[in-house]
Every structure is written in C-alpha cells, then in structure tokens.
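**User:**
Make up any protein.

**Assistant:**
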Amino acid sequence: MNQRTIQKAAAAVLSAFLLTACQDSGFSLGSEVNATTPVADVYSPAPQQDIPVFTITSPSPDAGIPQVETLSPARVVDFQMLDDRTGFAWSDANEGLSVYRTEDGGENWLSITPAPKARGVGLPSMQFLDSRHGWAAISTEAQQIHIWYTKDGGDTWGHTELASSGYPAALSFVTPEIGWLISVYDVAMGKSGKLLHKTENGGIDWELISLSPYEGDAVGRIPAELPLHGHVVDMFFQDRQTGWLSVTGPAPIPQLYRSLDGGVTWSAALLEFPEELPQTDITIDQGPVFASGMDRTDGWIRTRRTDGMQVLYDFFRSTDNGETWTFVPAGFDHSLIFLDKDTGWGVKDDVLHKTNNGGLSWTAIPASGLSGLLDQYEVPVRLQMAADDRGWLLLGQGGGGDSGLFRTEDGGSSWEILAITD
C-alpha cells in the first residue's frame, strides 16, 4: 500500500479553519534560520485516560447498520493504515491529541498518546512512515507549533517546537531522518503565507528553507519560492529531491507546484483541462499520490468540481512521473482513491464502485449498509483499500459531531464498525 502523508482531514475543513483562526496577528518568523527550540527529551505515552472515542451499541433494527454512541467530545478525525494489519488513528487537538495503534487490521487499538497530553487548535498534521517512525504537529492558540516524533511505534515520543509561528498544514517524510513540514498563517482573504521547514535528523531540529514572498527581512536570506495565493491542500515528497505542493482558493485555475531540489525552489506544474469544463469550477481536493513498486511513474490528483448544486469528484492522471497531468471526469460523489495504476474505488449514489483499468470503466459493488451509513454520517473523511479486499472508511458529521471508523473484509460489500477506546 502506498505510504504517504495523511493529511489533516478534508481540505475544505482546513481552508475554513485557516480563514478564521489565522487572522490573529501573532505570526512570527523567528530570529534563527535553524527554527527549532528544544523543549524536552523523551515523553512516554500518557497513562490510560477516561477519554473513549466511540464504541458500539446494539444495532438498530430499522437502519440495519451499526449505531455509534459518542462518549466524549474527543473523536477520531483521521487514520492511516500502512498495510492490512498495521495502522494508526488520531483525534483532533481541541480536547487533547489522542493517538492509537492497531496491529490486527483495526480489531484492537492501543493508546500511544504522548504525555503530557497535547492541547491545541484545529486538526493535527500527522504521518507514519512505517510501523516505528511517526510524527505529529499541532498549533496552540498562540500559534506556537509543537512537533512530536517517535522511533518505536509510539511507545515513547520526543518533542520540539518551531521558532516560527503559524499552523501546521502538512508533513512529509521520505526516510526516518529526512522530512518536511509546511506551515501557514493568514495574510488576507484568498491568500496565506507559507513556511517550509526541513529536518535531517528525524524531527529533532528544523531549518527554514523556503517561504512566501511576504516576510520582509527574511526575503533574500531564504528563497521566497512558495506561492502567496491560495491555501495548502497537501504536500508530498516522492524522494529527497522531488516534492509536490497543491493549493486551492481564489485563483484562475487550481495550482500544483513541483520542487526538484528538496523544497528550496518551486515551479508550477502543467495541468491539462478539458475545454468543455470551466477551469474555475475545479479545485484540487487531494495532492498527488504516486503508485508504489514498478508503477512509480503513475500518479493521481483528486479534484472537486461543481455541476449546478452537485459536487463531483474527478482526477488528474500522470503516466510520466508528473511531467504532465490529464483530467479524467469520473463524476463520483466522494471517496475517490487509487491503489495502483489500474485499481481504484469511488462512491456514487451511495454505492461503492471499483475500476481495474485505471478509471476507464467502473463496476458497482453490491452495498450492504453503506447507504445507511452515509445517511447517518454526512462527511466522508477517508477511504483506504488494500489488495486483499480489506478496506477502512472513516465517516464524520459536520460541526464536530460523531465519527465512525468502519472496516470491510469483502471488498466493500459489507462494513463493520471498529471500536476505539482508551
């Protein structure tokens, strides 16, 4: 399965959060180029706390689907499965960041929450590179960015702070030592300042390597290569040199940027739009995802467009390692993902569909309970599928309501809820 950055839930939620929360004037670039303030050495996971996320109650005979009872304001907001057995899930930071690990496909979850429990604002940026190495970044109300890192699967955590203030938008690591963090702060409606930091020692120290052309005295010392317009959707590095940044917001067309020198300089990538579709109706919903193994030159970018009152999900596809991108009008309702260059899934009319030919044709999977689940939860957060017919689906409710994490073992024909508790 492709191991890449798991973003902060839906990009639309992030953009709305930034437009409101980042308007405070507390932004600070920091006085040092090596923008890290060591705070402490190692934290162990918090002791078992009375903050359950959700659990199962008796099924509703009317709906015929698992019902979820929320036991605490804390809730799972995102997850990442590394393979069909090992994965991680986490809550938002408003009630205190909680992190969980599973080693049996989601049947059981172990709390690996760093201690002392971190409280912040909004959604965390998190990534697990493998079963042992992971990172989490959150921001406080004072816009101070805190970073936690683990080298043993969450048994212990290290901690540091960035000297630059703002809000973390995305993390991307390519090795246990080398990674990037992009943070944002609001300048005006439709624009957000962006700071890109890099670490070469696993997240202990961070260096500011690129920024938006807004920082005054910093411009000239550090390349001002990041766009000022738009809000960050995603950032992903394929290797030590090649990185991708997608932004959305008021602009003539959705923007995708590529770096070929480890994030120091950036240039716009070529997106080919169909003539019959207005470019202004299309926004990038998820940054580039590239296939693993022998098909690494194949990549996808999920997009969102409006067709009257309906929101449809399509994708750009590249077969030349991102040199060019071609638009494919899939027209799904949500949860459009790809596992490799041929295999993908998407939901349309509350029915899961699958393609085995790169999106040229799609076959409906008989749904058992999926329609009812989508009636109960109006916000699909993330769908992940594995090659062995296992899959996981996180659903939420608007306004910070309940969430439910579900699993299928038959390719999506039936779904069961997974219980995560402290």
